[in-house]
Amino acid sequence: MKLYLSVDMEGITGLADHTHVDSSKHNYERSRVIMTDEANHVVTAAFEEGCSEVIVNDSHSKMNNLLIERMHPETQLITGDVKPYSMVQGLDSTFSGAMFVGYHARASMKGVMSHSMIFGVRHMYINDHAIGEMGFNAYVAGYHGVPVLMVAGDDQAALEAEKLIPNVTTAVVKETISRSVVKSLTPAKAGQLLREKAAEALKKKDLVKPLVPPENPVLRIEFANYGQAEWAALMPGAEIEENSTIVRYQAKDILEAYQAMLVMVELAMRTTFC
Protein backbone atom coordinates (compact mmCIF):
# COMPACT_ATOMS: atom_id res chain seq x y z
CA MET A 1 0.00 0.00 0.00
CA LYS A 2 1.20 3.48 -0.91
CA LEU A 3 0.49 6.31 1.57
CA TYR A 4 0.58 10.10 1.09
CA LEU A 5 1.31 12.54 3.94
CA SER A 6 0.71 16.28 3.75
CA VAL A 7 2.44 17.93 6.73
CA ASP A 8 1.58 21.47 7.81
CA MET A 9 3.01 23.25 10.84
CA GLU A 10 0.37 25.18 12.79
CA GLY A 11 -1.19 21.96 14.11
CA ILE A 12 2.06 20.42 15.36
CA THR A 13 2.44 19.58 19.07
CA GLY A 14 3.28 22.50 21.35
CA LEU A 15 3.25 25.18 18.63
CA ALA A 16 1.05 28.05 19.78
CA ASP A 17 1.79 31.26 17.88
CA HIS A 18 3.61 32.87 14.96
CA THR A 19 7.01 32.67 16.64
CA HIS A 20 6.86 28.90 16.18
CA VAL A 21 5.97 28.86 12.46
CA ASP A 22 7.72 31.95 11.03
CA SER A 23 11.25 31.17 9.84
CA SER A 24 12.49 34.60 11.02
CA LYS A 25 11.38 34.05 14.64
CA HIS A 26 13.25 32.57 17.60
CA ASN A 27 11.09 29.47 18.12
CA TYR A 28 11.12 28.28 14.50
CA GLU A 29 14.20 26.04 14.47
CA ARG A 30 13.05 23.99 17.45
CA SER A 31 9.60 23.78 15.89
CA ARG A 32 11.11 22.26 12.74
CA VAL A 33 12.55 19.44 14.85
CA ILE A 34 9.20 18.72 16.49
CA MET A 35 7.46 18.87 13.10
CA THR A 36 9.94 16.43 11.57
CA ASP A 37 9.69 14.02 14.49
CA GLU A 38 5.88 14.18 14.31
CA ALA A 39 5.93 13.24 10.62
CA ASN A 40 8.33 10.41 11.45
CA HIS A 41 5.97 8.90 14.00
CA VAL A 42 3.27 8.59 11.35
CA VAL A 43 5.69 7.30 8.71
CA THR A 44 7.07 4.68 11.10
CA ALA A 45 3.58 3.44 11.96
CA ALA A 46 2.72 3.29 8.26
CA PHE A 47 5.67 1.03 7.47
CA GLU A 48 4.93 -1.11 10.50
CA GLU A 49 1.37 -1.59 9.22
CA GLY A 50 2.62 -2.84 5.87
CA CYS A 51 2.84 0.24 3.66
CA SER A 52 5.33 -0.30 0.87
CA GLU A 53 5.90 3.38 0.10
CA VAL A 54 5.31 6.67 1.95
CA ILE A 55 5.56 10.05 0.25
CA VAL A 56 5.70 13.12 2.53
CA ASN A 57 4.88 16.58 1.18
CA ASP A 58 6.13 19.55 3.23
CA SER A 59 3.06 21.81 3.22
CA HIS A 60 3.91 24.86 5.33
CA SER A 61 4.85 28.34 4.06
CA LYS A 62 7.83 27.98 1.70
CA MET A 63 7.49 24.22 2.13
CA ASN A 64 11.12 23.59 3.08
CA ASN A 65 10.69 23.07 6.83
CA LEU A 66 11.11 19.32 7.33
CA LEU A 67 14.64 18.18 8.17
CA ILE A 68 15.34 15.37 5.75
CA GLU A 69 18.41 14.20 7.67
CA ARG A 70 16.15 13.37 10.65
CA MET A 71 13.49 11.54 8.64
CA HIS A 72 12.79 7.81 8.43
CA PRO A 73 15.31 6.45 5.89
CA GLU A 74 12.60 4.96 3.64
CA THR A 75 10.68 8.24 3.39
CA GLN A 76 10.50 10.14 0.12
CA LEU A 77 10.14 13.89 0.70
CA ILE A 78 8.65 16.55 -1.57
CA THR A 79 10.13 19.87 -0.46
CA GLY A 80 10.45 23.42 -1.77
CA ASP A 81 8.35 26.05 -3.49
CA VAL A 82 6.72 26.80 -6.01
CA LYS A 83 4.55 23.67 -6.30
CA PRO A 84 1.76 23.54 -8.89
CA TYR A 85 -0.50 21.83 -6.34
CA SER A 86 0.99 23.23 -3.14
CA MET A 87 -0.11 21.18 -0.10
CA VAL A 88 -1.16 18.19 -2.24
CA GLN A 89 1.74 18.16 -4.67
CA GLY A 90 2.42 14.64 -5.94
CA LEU A 91 -0.92 13.21 -4.81
CA ASP A 92 -2.48 11.02 -7.50
CA SER A 93 -4.54 7.88 -8.02
CA THR A 94 -1.64 5.54 -7.22
CA PHE A 95 -2.10 6.15 -3.47
CA SER A 96 -4.32 3.98 -1.29
CA GLY A 97 -4.83 6.72 1.27
CA ALA A 98 -3.72 10.12 2.53
CA MET A 99 -3.09 11.57 5.98
CA PHE A 100 -2.93 15.23 6.98
CA VAL A 101 -0.55 16.01 9.86
CA GLY A 102 -0.07 19.33 11.65
CA TYR A 103 -3.35 20.72 10.31
CA HIS A 104 -5.43 23.60 11.70
CA ALA A 105 -8.97 24.96 11.49
CA ARG A 106 -10.14 27.14 8.62
CA ALA A 107 -10.19 30.94 8.57
CA SER A 108 -12.58 32.83 10.86
CA MET A 109 -13.11 29.78 13.06
CA LYS A 110 -11.93 28.98 16.57
CA GLY A 111 -8.60 27.16 16.56
CA VAL A 112 -4.86 27.55 17.05
CA MET A 113 -3.53 29.88 14.33
CA SER A 114 -6.68 29.23 12.29
CA HIS A 115 -6.50 30.50 8.71
CA SER A 116 -7.01 29.51 5.08
CA MET A 117 -3.79 29.82 3.06
CA ILE A 118 -3.16 33.51 3.92
CA PHE A 119 -4.37 35.67 6.78
CA GLY A 120 -6.22 37.96 4.34
CA VAL A 121 -8.82 35.25 3.60
CA ARG A 122 -12.02 35.35 5.65
CA HIS A 123 -13.76 32.44 3.96
CA MET A 124 -13.37 30.12 0.99
CA TYR A 125 -16.26 28.33 -0.68
CA ILE A 126 -16.79 25.58 -3.22
CA ASN A 127 -20.35 25.90 -4.54
CA ASP A 128 -21.27 27.96 -1.44
CA HIS A 129 -19.91 25.25 0.89
CA ALA A 130 -17.35 26.80 3.27
CA ILE A 131 -14.01 24.99 3.27
CA GLY A 132 -10.46 25.57 4.42
CA GLU A 133 -7.13 24.08 3.46
CA MET A 134 -8.19 20.71 4.83
CA GLY A 135 -11.39 20.59 2.79
CA PHE A 136 -9.78 21.77 -0.41
CA ASN A 137 -6.96 19.25 -0.06
CA ALA A 138 -9.44 16.47 0.71
CA TYR A 139 -11.38 17.37 -2.44
CA VAL A 140 -8.21 17.07 -4.55
CA ALA A 141 -7.52 13.70 -2.95
CA GLY A 142 -11.10 12.68 -3.69
CA TYR A 143 -10.74 13.74 -7.32
CA HIS A 144 -8.01 11.11 -7.57
CA GLY A 145 -10.11 8.54 -5.70
CA VAL A 146 -7.95 8.74 -2.57
CA PRO A 147 -9.57 8.80 0.90
CA VAL A 148 -8.19 10.95 3.74
CA LEU A 149 -7.70 8.38 6.50
CA MET A 150 -6.37 10.55 9.34
CA VAL A 151 -6.10 14.20 10.33
CA ALA A 152 -3.76 15.24 13.16
CA GLY A 153 -3.67 18.68 14.75
CA ASP A 154 -5.49 20.70 17.36
CA ASP A 155 -8.97 19.90 18.69
CA GLN A 156 -10.70 22.30 16.30
CA ALA A 157 -8.99 20.79 13.26
CA ALA A 158 -10.22 17.40 14.44
CA LEU A 159 -13.81 18.65 14.72
CA GLU A 160 -13.60 20.14 11.23
CA ALA A 161 -12.25 16.85 9.84
CA GLU A 162 -14.97 14.76 11.50
CA LYS A 163 -17.72 16.95 10.01
CA LEU A 164 -16.10 16.79 6.59
CA ILE A 165 -15.03 13.15 6.25
CA PRO A 166 -17.17 10.32 7.70
CA ASN A 167 -15.18 7.71 9.65
CA VAL A 168 -11.92 9.69 9.49
CA THR A 169 -9.49 9.03 12.35
CA THR A 170 -8.33 12.13 14.23
CA ALA A 171 -5.34 12.65 16.51
CA VAL A 172 -5.64 15.64 18.85
CA VAL A 173 -2.18 16.70 20.04
CA LYS A 174 -3.26 20.02 21.62
CA GLU A 175 -6.38 21.84 22.76
CA THR A 176 -7.32 25.41 21.86
CA ILE A 177 -7.47 27.95 24.66
CA SER A 178 -7.28 30.91 22.30
CA ARG A 179 -5.96 31.42 18.79
CA SER A 180 -2.44 31.72 20.21
CA VAL A 181 -2.65 29.69 23.44
CA VAL A 182 -2.79 25.91 23.69
CA LYS A 183 -2.85 23.11 26.22
CA SER A 184 -0.54 20.59 24.59
CA LEU A 185 0.69 17.06 24.99
CA THR A 186 4.45 16.68 25.21
CA PRO A 187 6.19 15.52 22.02
CA ALA A 188 6.78 12.11 23.59
CA LYS A 189 3.07 11.61 24.40
CA ALA A 190 2.00 13.06 21.07
CA GLY A 191 4.34 10.70 19.26
CA GLN A 192 2.80 7.70 20.98
CA LEU A 193 -0.70 8.97 20.11
CA LEU A 194 0.21 9.56 16.47
CA ARG A 195 1.61 6.08 16.03
CA GLU A 196 -1.48 4.53 17.59
CA LYS A 197 -3.90 6.65 15.55
CA ALA A 198 -2.04 6.14 12.27
CA ALA A 199 -2.11 2.38 12.81
CA GLU A 200 -5.82 2.54 13.68
CA ALA A 201 -6.57 4.60 10.56
CA LEU A 202 -4.80 2.12 8.31
CA LYS A 203 -6.61 -0.82 9.87
CA LYS A 204 -10.01 0.75 9.16
CA LYS A 205 -9.11 2.35 5.83
CA ASP A 206 -11.90 0.54 4.00
CA LEU A 207 -14.49 2.43 6.07
CA VAL A 208 -13.41 5.81 4.69
CA LYS A 209 -14.59 6.93 1.25
CA PRO A 210 -12.94 9.61 -0.90
CA LEU A 211 -14.47 13.09 -0.57
CA VAL A 212 -15.67 13.42 -4.15
CA PRO A 213 -15.67 17.06 -5.35
CA PRO A 214 -18.50 18.59 -7.36
CA GLU A 215 -18.19 18.83 -11.12
CA ASN A 216 -17.63 22.31 -12.61
CA PRO A 217 -17.18 23.89 -9.16
CA VAL A 218 -17.57 27.58 -8.44
CA LEU A 219 -14.75 28.90 -6.27
CA ARG A 220 -15.52 31.94 -4.10
CA ILE A 221 -12.98 33.59 -1.83
CA GLU A 222 -13.92 36.35 0.62
CA PHE A 223 -10.97 38.62 1.41
CA ALA A 224 -10.38 40.92 4.38
CA ASN A 225 -10.37 44.11 2.30
CA TYR A 226 -11.32 45.38 -1.13
CA GLY A 227 -7.73 45.87 -2.25
CA GLN A 228 -7.06 42.15 -1.87
CA ALA A 229 -10.18 41.38 -3.90
CA GLU A 230 -9.02 43.78 -6.62
CA TRP A 231 -5.67 42.04 -6.89
CA ALA A 232 -7.23 38.56 -6.90
CA ALA A 233 -9.72 39.56 -9.60
CA LEU A 234 -6.86 40.34 -11.99
CA MET A 235 -6.65 36.63 -12.71
CA PRO A 236 -8.39 35.93 -16.03
CA GLY A 237 -11.87 34.55 -15.48
CA ALA A 238 -12.20 35.92 -11.94
CA GLU A 239 -14.60 38.67 -10.94
CA ILE A 240 -15.58 40.56 -7.79
CA GLU A 241 -19.13 40.01 -6.61
CA GLU A 242 -20.94 43.34 -6.34
CA ASN A 243 -20.83 45.14 -2.97
CA SER A 244 -18.49 42.58 -1.43
CA THR A 245 -14.87 41.48 -1.13
CA ILE A 246 -15.73 38.08 -2.63
CA VAL A 247 -13.96 37.00 -5.80
CA ARG A 248 -15.67 34.36 -7.90
CA TYR A 249 -14.22 31.89 -10.41
CA GLN A 250 -15.99 29.23 -12.46
CA ALA A 251 -13.68 26.19 -12.77
CA LYS A 252 -13.87 23.17 -15.06
CA ASP A 253 -12.87 20.83 -12.20
CA ILE A 254 -11.47 20.89 -8.67
CA LEU A 255 -7.86 20.86 -9.90
CA GLU A 256 -8.43 24.07 -11.84
CA ALA A 257 -10.26 25.57 -8.84
CA TYR A 258 -7.30 24.67 -6.61
CA GLN A 259 -4.77 26.33 -8.88
CA ALA A 260 -7.07 29.34 -9.27
CA MET A 261 -7.17 29.64 -5.49
CA LEU A 262 -3.36 29.55 -5.33
CA VAL A 263 -3.03 32.32 -7.90
CA MET A 264 -5.72 34.48 -6.28
CA VAL A 265 -4.21 34.35 -2.80
CA GLU A 266 -0.71 35.03 -4.14
CA LEU A 267 -2.00 38.11 -5.94
CA ALA A 268 -3.96 39.24 -2.87
CA MET A 269 -0.80 39.19 -0.75
CA ARG A 270 0.49 42.13 -2.79
CA THR A 271 -2.01 44.40 -1.08
CA THR A 272 -0.82 46.96 1.45
CA PHE A 273 -3.00 48.34 4.21
CA CYS A 274 -2.25 52.04 3.74
Automatic annotation (TrEMBL):
Where's the active site on this chain? Answer: 115 (nucleophile)
GO molecular function annotation: aminopeptidase activity; metal ion binding
- Keywords from the named record: Aminopeptidase, Hydrolase, Metal-binding, Protease, Zinc
The organism's superkingdom is given as Bacteria
Q: Which residues are noted in the entry as Zn(2+) 2-binding? A: 8, 60, 104, 133
Q: Which Pfam families match?
A: Peptidase_M55
Listed binding positions for Zn(2+) 1 are 8, 10
InterPro entries linked: DppA_N, Peptidase_M55, Peptidase_M55_sf
What is the protein name given in its UniProt record? D-aminopeptidase
